[in-house]
Amino acid sequence: xxxxxxxxxxxxxxxxxxxxxxxxxxxxxxxxxxxxxxxxxxxxxxxxxxxxxxxxxxxxxxxxxxxxxxxxxxxxxxxxxxxxxxxxxxxxxxxxxxxxxxxxxxxxxxxxxxxxxxxxxxxxxxxxxxxxxxxxxxxxxxxxxxxxxxxxxxxxxxxxxxxxxxxxxxxxxxxxxxxxxxxxxxxxxxxxxxxxxxxxxxxxxxxxxxxxxxxxxxxxxxxxxxxxxxxxxxxxx
Amino acid sequence: xxxxxxxxxxxxxxxxxxxxxxxxxxxxxxxxxxxxxxxxxxxxxxxxxxxxxxxxxxxxxxxxxxxxxxxxxxxxxxxxxxxxxxxxxxxxxxxxxxxxxxxxxxxxxxxxxxxxxxxxxxxxxxxxxxxxxxxxxxxxxxxxxxxxxxxxxxxxxxxxxxxxxxxxxxxxxxxxxxxxxxxxxxxxxxxxxxxxxxxxxxxxxxxxxxxxxxxxxxxxxxxxxxxxxxxxxxxxxxxxxxxxxxxxxxxxxxxxxxxxxxxxxxxxxxxxxxxxxxxxxxxxxxxxxxxxxxxxxxxxxxxxxxxxxxxxxxxxxxxxxxxxxxxxxxxxxxxxxxxxxxxxxxxxxxxxxxxxxxxxxxxxxxxxxxxxxxxxxxxxxxxxxxxxxxxxxxxxxxxxxxxxxxxxxxxxxxxxxxxxxxxxxxxxxxxxxxxxxxxxxxxxxxxxxxxxxxxxxxxxxxxxxxxxxxxxxxxxxxxxxxxxxxxxxxxxxxxxxxxxxxxxxxxxxxxxxxxxxxxxxxxxxxxxxxxxx
Lengths: 237, 533
Prior knowledge:
The complex is a heterodimer.
Chain A: E1 2-11, E2 14-24, E3 29-34, H1 40-47, E4 55-60, E5 63-64, H2 69-75, E6 76-79, H3 91-101, H4 106-119, H5 135-147, E7 153-157, H6 165-180, E8 184-188, H7 192-198, E9 201-206, E10 209-215, H8 216-220, H9 225-235
Parallel strand pairs in A: 3-8, 3-9, 6-7, 7-8
Antiparallel strand pairs in A: 1-2, 1-4, 4-5, 9-10
Chain B: H1 2-18, H2 27-62, H3 66-94, H4 99-103, H5 109-143, H6 147-179, H7 185-205, H8 207-216, H9 218-228, H10 230-241, H11 244-273, H12 294-308, H13 310-316, H14 318-332, H15 338-344, H16 348-364, H17 380-385, H18 390-419, H19 424-451, H20 460-465, H21 468-492, H22 498-523, H23 525-530
Helix pairs in contact in B: 1-5, 2-3, 2-5, 3-5, 3-6, 3-10, 5-6, 5-11, 6-10, 6-11, 7-13, 9-10, 10-11, 12-18, 14-16, 14-18, 16-18, 16-19, 16-21, 18-19, 18-22, 19-21, 19-22
């Protein structure tokens, strides 16, 4: 579903991502962990086609993000680490705008907005302007908008930040549901307990380079993911 | 602590005005260009005020009304300070992004408020000097001014902004209170601003008449000033006659209201800045949703942003107001132009050419698309991550500009042509050329903003007013109209009829529009992606 091959991205003289390769298969929830500034967000943005990269290739369901970005973007949904949305729109207008871009017909559009807004308990607030939303409400709106076109690949940067426990639970259920239907989820997180419980596979990145990747069992063995992560950090310090 | 707060505010203002965002190649040259243009603007304003006051000094001095000369300068400075501060006061005092941060620190709210009022005072001092310094220099050149009087001048100039800031802060408080209770606050603020703007320009059109009245009826007006405007009278007497008592009275009039306003606002500061914006929430009731094509959805989004952001509407849509107003004013007040036309016996071709040129200049001064990419700010990821081609995104911004400007340019141009009773061929061009200029500016504005984006803004005002792209677009707009006009008047007039020249100009604009459209649609992908880093 998502193939990152030898991705390299530099900012000036600094390599933010260095020769990174990760393959994510349909049906997998793939966690992406690393310290602050490790290159997680850069990798995620490159996967979504909003950041140019210097070397390597990113394929989404066989389409190159460099040469066929529109086909890739029709398949994926992206949620950034900070849900900066159009503050001048109401929640419903924002969702309708995203649905227009994906050309979702009226009936399924109406049904999906109703379903996801209810799931995230945001229905009553859809008439409010986004500027009046709290951080958590904006995050919920960003998630709902990302779900409108039934994405095959869900790419998220710290998706649980700001969500209340019920919304976090709902999101986890949705992530599993997407994978059960043959899609895939790739997300970064600092909450290692969540990654440990939720992910089928995990990749640990440090200073732009892949340190360890594989199934959760293979990466952590008998230890907790937190212990493995801290050992790897100390080992490279 | 207070010093640190004020310093931070001023640094932020400096950065907003002169810092070019991103890793731009010619950052220093662009910064230098902005500074030079600002300096030219400041010197032009000083020159304008100098000219105004040089006309007044001799008649007032001869009539023994020296004090009135300075009183008038003081009132002018106060009005300019107040007008420039009213819309700045509310966001600066109460809606700053660092409200939560500063309130969480051990800083008294009164000090936070004072540091922000001090920033306003600083900007008002600059405006005061723009007016008062030319007035003082004219006085010094013609009547002489000793050291003592210069000290008085410095004290008066320092105190004058306190009055304007006190009044603007009170009004800002009122706007902040209204904002928390109204749904259509954007519309209200815009209407209020347009009314103020039109009032200002109505005053400007009457300035020669006012100047003549001032000189003729100086004694009566001065008497009215003395009775009604106590602070202005004492300001004038303090400077013209070096009167210490008047100076003390004026300083009291300036400083006491400021202190009172600060004391009152300090009391309500936390309540104002922590008030929930917007009217009471209403629950969403499901309605059938309207669908649109991606391009149409993008244009609607741009139009919504424009209509919901008063600063954007007022600063970028400036030309629209005048385009609409010009034919209406000439229809209602034909006496404004009639004497001019009959007195100088101007040929109809030249009238037509001037009218078309004027409408084109107004269309070129409408810069809606020139900050439309900058205004994406932190939301740029949305259009970059959605399945939209760069051409679709960029052209939608140009189309939104055209949707707003072209009908106005077309109708106003036609209206002006009809009011001026232009022949049919001029009538055609008076509608066509402003509309084509608007289309060109829509496309060129996007291209310029793509090359000179400004994403590091705190308020949309910074993106709209302080972005280098707006300045460059303004210059390009002026050049695209003024240069061909100058070329025609100086070189081509003998060889080309006005109608042929206008047809040639229309063709050139069409060609430029086609080229820009092609570039934005097919060649902009790299530049658009580079916006993300």
